Amino acid sequence: MAIIRKPINRGGIKSAGYDRASRILEIEFSNGRLVQQTNVGEEIATRFLASSSPAGYYQDKIEEEYAIKR
Fold it and tell me: Which is a Pfam family this sequence falls into (predicted)?
């Protein structure tokens, strides 16, 4: 099942979406890079998606804390 992403268009992030069942946060960057961070809790994902500074939130709370699905 594909993860539905919503437009972000801030801080180098083009879009992002979260799948609660699989706990995957999918992020598409403005440069075309697509990552799926695994085992991300719903609260973290919700805060990221609602953040006024999603790039900063990603760097501070997600990037190094959660594995990237290969």
Answer: KTSC
Q: What gap in Å lies between CA 24 and CA 10, rounded to an integer?
A: 21
pLDDT tier at 51 (50, 70, 90 boundaries)? very high
pLDDT band at 1 (very low <50, low <70, confident <90, very high): low
Q: How many domains, the chain?
A: 1
Burial class (CB in 10 A: 0-12, 13-18, 19+), 15: middle
| 37 three-class SS | strand
pTM of the model: 0.93
